[in-house]
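Escalation from tier 1.

The customer reports that the assembly of three entities below gives different C-alpha cells on two consecutive runs. Tier 1 could not reproduce it. I'm attaching the input and our single run for tier 2 to review.
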Amino acid sequence: MTTTRRNLLKFVGGGAAGALLTPAPWRLITDTALWSENWPGIPRPARGEIRARFTHCTLCPAGCAVRARCVNGQPVSLTGVKPHPISHGALCPWGIAGHHLPYHPARVRQGPVKEALAAVARAMDQRSAGERVAVLDLRPGRTVSWTYRRAMAAIENGLYLAPRQPAYSIDLAAAETVVSFGAPLFDGWGTPGNVFAARGNFRLVQIEPVESRTAALADMWLPIRPGTETAMAAALGGETTIAEAARLTGVGEEAIGAVKEAAENGPAVVLAADPSSPLMSLNAKLRALGRTVVARREAPLPEAWKKAAPVTEMAAAPDGAIRVLLIDESLPGGYVPWQEIEPKLAANAVVVVFTSTTEGYARHARYVLPSPVYPEAAEDIGPAIDTVGEVFRIAAPLLAPVVPVVNPGEFVARIAGLPQSDPLRERADAIHQAGRGALLGYADGKSTPAKEVTADNFWKTLNQGGCWMDDTGKKAAPGKLEFIAAGEPPHDELPLMVVAAGGRRGGLAPPLMSKLERESNLRMAANRVALSPADARSNGIENGGRCLLETACGRLSVVATIDAGVPAGVVEVAAGPRIADLCGASPRARVVRA
Amino acid sequence: MTAQNQNRRAKRYGMSIDIDKCNGCGACMMACAVENNIPPLPEAANDRRGVTWIRVYKVDNHRPYPERRIAFVPVLCQQCGHDTPCVHVCPQQAVEVDPATGIVGQMPERCLGCRYCMVACPYHARYFNWWDPKWPAGMEKTLNPDVAPRMRGVVEKCNFCHGRWHAAQQKAAAAGKSEIDPADYVPACVEACPTGALRFGDLNDSSSQVAQDAERPESFRLLEKLGTEPKIHYRSQRGWVREIANAPRPEGKDEARG
Amino acid sequence: MIGGKIAFASGMLVALAGGWLAFPRILYQTRLQPVNFSHKVHAEKAGTKCEDCHSFRDDGTYAGIPTLDKCSGCHAAAMGTTVAEKNFIDQYVTPNREPQWLSYAQQPENVYFSHIAHVKLGHVKCEQCHGNEGGAATLRPYQRDPISGYSRDIWGRPVSPIGLRTEGGMRMDDCVDCHRRQGLEYSCMGCHK
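Tier 1 run:
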C-alpha cells in the first residue's frame, strides 16, 4: 500500500466512519449538552440546615409579622405568620421579596462618614445665634424617633422635624360603612391582613375619579369629577343638598342618597387619601369620633425620655434658619418635597441624608451616608393607621449588613453627646415595667400577660418576632384634629389633576418588582404616568411614549401609558420622590410630548 | 400499577381562584419568583419576554368611562387534563402529565428550546429563557435549594411548586407515612395571596374546598370550548368577567389601546 | 486499488479501537480522596454502622458525608499507628480544616432524592445502592467526566467491559430499573426539581 493522498483520505474516511460506530462522538455530544446545563454563571443554591426565624417587616408602618425560611442562617423566602392577630399572615408584594433588598444593585454602598461628622461638628460650632440643628425623621413614631427628639433637646436650638402624622387611629373592625375618598384601602392602606380580615364586616364606598384596585373591589364606586370631593363631603354631612352635590360631582342623586343613609345609620368611618385632609372632619358629623376614629396610642416610654424636643412640622420651621439638617430616609415611606425644605435652610447649610437609595434626598443632600436596609437592622415599628390600642414590635435583623452602613440613630446621638445606650432595650424594659398588656408568641400567636414574663424573656421574645399588645382600656375620641387645606383650583395652563396610584412608595423596591412593572404591566413603574385616551390624543402622546410632566414646581421626563380607566382631566402618577418633588403641594399638571 | 399503588388514589391537584377577591396586588407573582429561583430580567425584558409563571392580567368590560369596570385575573399554567396541548407537540417529550398528581411537569433538561409548546399553549402560560439567569451580586445567596435554576434556551412554566411537594413527601416519609398532609403542600402563590383569592387542593377529594368551589354555579374555566379540561377553576359573580373567559371578539377597534 | 481498501479498513479499525477501548479510559479524570480512609477498620474495630456517621437530621434531611467535627470526636488524638491517620490529624484536625471529600454519588442540581423515603418507607439497605462500602479497606478513586462535571457513577452507560463496575450504580437508569422492578410508579417530576 503506497502512501498517496488518496489513501490518506481513505484512511481518514475510514476513521470517521469507524468513529461514528463507536460511542465517542455521541458521548461527547451528550456531555456538551450537560456542560451547557451547568456552565459557570448558573449559580447553585446553597445547601444546609433549614430553620424558621421570625421578625417584623419595616417597609411600611403596618409592620406585618414575618416568618423567614433560612438556609444556614441566610433568609431565602418570607411569608406571613397566619395566627398573628394583627397581620393574619398577609404580606404585600414588597414584603415578600424584602430579603433581596440588601443585595439591590442600586443600593448606596458607601459614603463619606468621617467628612460628614467633621462637617456637622464644624457647622454646629460655627453657627450664628438662632441657627438650628435639625433632624428630619421621615418615619416618626419609632423608638429611634425618641432618640432624635432627646438629641435635639440636648443640643442648643435643636429642632425635630417630621411629616405630619395623623393623631388618630381607625378601628376598621368597628365600622359597618366605610366611605373612602380615594384612600387605597385594598392596596397599601393600613395593614393588609387586618383590612382583609375585616372585609366581611363593612360595606365600602370608594369615591375617586380613577377606578383603582380598591374601587374595583368596593361595594360601590362613585366616579367623582376630579377636585369635587369637598362638595360630596358637604352633602354627606348635611351641609348642602344632594342635588347640589350631584350637579357638581357628576354622581347620581340616588347613589349619593344611599351612601348618606348608610353612613348615618350605622357605625361609619370616612377615610381620605391624605390622612390630614379636611375631608376627615366629616367623621365628626357622622359621630365616628370615639367609635371608629379613636385616639392614637403609643406604647409606654421610659420616664427620662419625656423631656424631649417637641415635634415640629416643616412648614412651621423658621425660614433660612437651619444650619445642619440630618435626614433619616433609612425606611421607605414619607417624603417631604424638597421645595418645602429648601427655604428653611440657611446659607451654606450642611445636609446629611442617611439612605439606601439614590432617588430620594441623595439628589439634594451634600453628604449621602449608607443606611441599613430591611432586614439588616434592629428597628421597631410605630403604630399603623389601623392599629387600635398600643403595640410594640421589634424588627429583629435577619442578617448582618452586607455593606458598611451608618446607623442614623447612633450618628445623631453621638453628635448630640447622648450617652451610649440601647434605646430599644430601654423601651422594652419600660413597657415591661408598666405591667400591663400581653406578649404574643411569634409562631403561634398565643399570648401571655406581660406581668408573668421576666424582663429578660420579654426582651428575648420580642427579638424573636414576638409582639406586645395592650388593647384594654376604653377607646378614646381623638384630640383636636388638624387638617391641611386642599390643593389649588384648576387653571388653563395646568389642566390635569394629579392622582397617585396606590401601592408604590419611595425607597428601594426589591429587584423582583420587575415582574410586576416591566415583565408584565400590572403596576406602574417609577416615573410613569397614565393618561386618558382623550388627553393623550389632544397632546399627541402615544402609549409607552416619552413625555414631560410639568407642574408649577418643575418638569420631569416620564413614560406615558394610555388607560381608558383614567378620566379626562386626570393624570395618574406612580408615587415616588421625584414625582413628589414635582407635584408635592400642587396637584395640577400638564403633560407635553417630549 | 401494583397493589402498592392501587391503595393510593391518584390526586388531581387544582386551584380555585375568586376573581371577585383578587385586588391585583401581585404578591402571588413575587412569591412565585422567590420560590422558583426566577431572576429579575435584564433591562431589555418587557412584558413579551418576561418570565412570570403566574401573571395577573387586568381585564375590563370594554365600556367607556365611567361605566368601565376592571377585574384582575391571575393566569398560570392551567394544568390541562385532556389532550394537553404542550405534551402533544413537544418533540423531546420534555413535558408529561404526572398520573399521580395530575400536574403537567416541564423538564428543562430535556427541552431543546424549539418553543413549539409556547405556540400550542392556548393560555400563554409558558415562558422562554431568553437570557441566562443572572442575579444581582450577592442575591444568589437567597436561592431556594428545593428548586434547580434553569439555563437559557429552555422553556419553563408553573409546576404547582413541585419543590414543596417533594418537601411535603419528605416530611411524611420522616414520620413514616406514605401520604402527604394536605396542609404541608401549598404552592407559594396560594400561601402569599393576602386576600384569600387563591385556593389549592385535590379536585378528586370531594371534601376539599377547591372541589366544592369548582361545582359552584358562578365557577368557570378559561377557554372551556377548547376542551383542554384545565384544572384551574375561576369564579366571579360578574357576568362580564365570565364572558371574558370565552375570549369573545371585541366589538370594533378597541379604543382603550390608544 | 486494494491499497485504498486497506487504507479505509485500517482507518476504521484504528477508530473503532480508539472509540471502544481507549476512549472510555481517557474520558475520565481520576482523583484520589483527600484522606486514605478505611471503612473496614471503622466497621470492624470501632464497631460503627453506616448510620453512626452518615445520619439523618431531626427534620428528616440527610447529612451525607460527615463533617470534621464527627471525626474529631474520636480522633482528637491518634488512635492507631497508621500514617494515614497521622496525616489526617496533622492536615485536618489540628488546623480545623474540612476535608474536601469527593462524593461518588453526588447528583446534579436538578435531581431530587430523599434518603429518608427510601430508608424508612422503602426499607432499602445502604448496600443496595452504594455497594459494600463498609467492607472496603480503602476508598476507591473518584472518576469524573471533565466535560459534564459528573461523577462516573451517576452518568453514562457502561460501554466497555474494561473498568466496569457492575454494582452500586447511581445513574438515572439504575433508579428507574429499581423502581420498575418494585412496581412503583415513577414520573419525571417525582425525582426532578
